[in-house]
Specification:
Layout: E1 2-4, H1 9-27, H2 31-35, H3 37-42, E2 46-51, E3 76-78, E4 84-86, H4 90-93, E5 99-105, H5 112-121, H6 134-142, E6 154-157, E7 174-176, E8 182-184, H7 191-208, H8 229-243, H9 258-264, H10 268-282, E9 286-290, H11 300-325, E10 332-337, E11 341-342, E12 354-355, E13 359-365, E14 373-374, H12 391-402, E15 409-411, E16 417-419
Parallel strand pairs: 2-9, 2-10, 5-14, 6-7, 6-9
Antiparallel strand pairs: 1-8, 3-4, 5-13, 10-13, 11-12, 15-16
Helix pairs in contact: 1-8, 7-8, 10-11
């Protein structure tokens, strides 16, 4: 059995049970979808979220204020687009004709946990409701474009992507490590022995379900433990098929050449971006790649200059270039963001603290216009001076860029109607 490194067996099997439920619903779509699989493949969309956990200082990356007391040490540089970014992002500057920056984000959650939840869901935390993460929502809406997909439709690479909420386990993130290596839990066993172990699992599953397995469940007694014997066997069979799928090769980033690895950067984020491209090629609708370590309360400028910025500069620029060269850019939306930004004021430890009032995100691909800066902050970056935008607005714009209807409405477990992107408004300047 092949399990991506970085996952527990329990999580893998639990997720595969959900994925099996998804597979079952996909089969129920019928032959009509399969008959048009070629057309669906041509128009299938994907999204990649580059998640900067900890709250990156966007004032030092996307919205520099040279000459201001709050401006910091870095200088702006021109790009291939109609905007300037940090001088320590030279590779990214060359692809900024395809990415745009929203400089007028203004939110209220400046706590890491609450901010992460809000930016992933469009809702503030509520003890009475678990909202689905955007990855689950997008995977849910785009999965019907790819009936041939056998691996999970939402993959999280080295990131705390949140959960599926009321959408259910089938839409949970499939969490893997950035190395992408897949290890054989059979420990070199021959196929015959592995098949025997599969049979053992089937026997165990039937006993667990409270009945001796029989194709005709009317002939045997059954103990109801939340899942029928037949359903349990289907989960095991579909899980086995998934683990042995050829599509699992998308996780094997070590198959890439040394030249490609060097271009992305031989680090966790670079490998994560490389895996994201491979997963888009495989047809996965949503991939989140994590890059933490942005909670820079002290010594922020050398940390950014010598560590954080070179890593994201290389990985992000290579991702955009590869998606473009492979003809995937117009069908893939890339989002770069964290849970908030950092204070314009530089503190006594030469760092910046939490700040959600005025900050930036980067987004591009799909139907989203590249090369522009949307919105503005004042001369010292302390407030937004144009129309402010929220997590909901950003997500509504991502949905539009992917061709997902903003009229889409879900029903929560307490039967409340929940509009996609929490009813956010489209950021019009991101579209032609």
């Amino acid at each position: 059995m092949n399990i991506p490194r970085g996952m527990s067996r329990r999580h893998f099997m639990k997720h595969m049970a959900g994925a099996s439920a998804l597979a079952g619903s996909s089969f129920a779509m019928g032959n009509a979808i399969k008959a048009n699989a070629g057309d669906l493949k041509k128009r299938r969309k994907s999204a990649i979220l580059l998640w900067m956990g900890g709250g990156p200082s966007t004032m030092d990356i996307w919205d520099l204020k040279p000459g201001a007391a709050t401006g910091g040490e870095f200088k702006p540089m021109s790009t291939a687009g109609d905007l300037q970014i940090c001088e320590h992002m030279p590779m990214t500057s060359k692809v900024m004709d395809r990415m745009s920056v929203v400089r007028s984000m203004s939110t209220r959650e400046a706590d890491h946990g609450r901010g992460r939840y809000y930016m992933h869901t469009g809702y503030v935390p509520n003890p009475n409701m678990e909202h689905p993460t955007y990855g689950s929502v997008i995977a849910h809406e785009l999965a019907n474009q790819r009936p041939e997909l056998e691996i999970p439709p939402f993959v999280s690479v080295g990131s705390d992507a949140g959960g599926p909420g009321f959408l259910g386990m089938a839409w949970a993130p499939f969490s893997v490590g950035s190395n992408g290596q897949v290890r054989n839990l059979g420990l070199g066993l021959e196929t015959e022995r592995l098949l025997k172990r599969q049979d053992m699992l089937r026997l165990f599953g039937s006993n667990f379900a409270g009945t001796k397995f029989d194709a005709d469940l009317t002939k045997v007694g059954q103990v109801d433990r939340g899942i029928s014997s037949k359903e349990h066997m289907e989960v095991i069979d579909k899980t086995w098929n998934l683990m042995t799928s050829e599509q699992m090769k998308a996780f094997k980033v070590n198959q890439e050449s040394p030249e490609v690895l060097e271009r992305y950067g031989d680090n966790a984020f670079g490998r994560g971006c490389m895996m994201a491209r491979r997963l888009v090629e495989a047809g996965v609708p949503f991939i989140e790649v994590g890059n933490g370590g942005w909670d820079n309360h002290g010594n922020i400028f050398p940390t950014l200059r010598d560590n954080k910025l070179p890593i994201i500069d290389r990985g992000m620029s290579a991702l955009v270039e590869d998606l473009t060269q492979r003809g995937l850019w117009e069908d893939t939306v890339v989002i770069w963001m964290g849970e908030f930004s950092r204070t314009p004021r530089i503190n006594g430890n030469a760092g910046r603290d939490h700040w959600a009032r005025s900050w930036s995100v980067a987004v591009g691909g799909g139907d989203i216009k590249g090369g522009v800066a949307v919105g503005a902050t004042n001369e010292d970056g302390t407030r937004v001076i144009t129309e402010p935008y929220s997590s909901e607005d950003l997500m509504a714009s991502v949905c539009k860029g992917l061709g997902i209807s903003l009229n889409t409405t879900f029903t929560s477990r307490n039967n409340r109607p929940m509009k996609i992107a929490n009813g956010g408004k489209i950021i019009k300047d991101l579209f032609a």
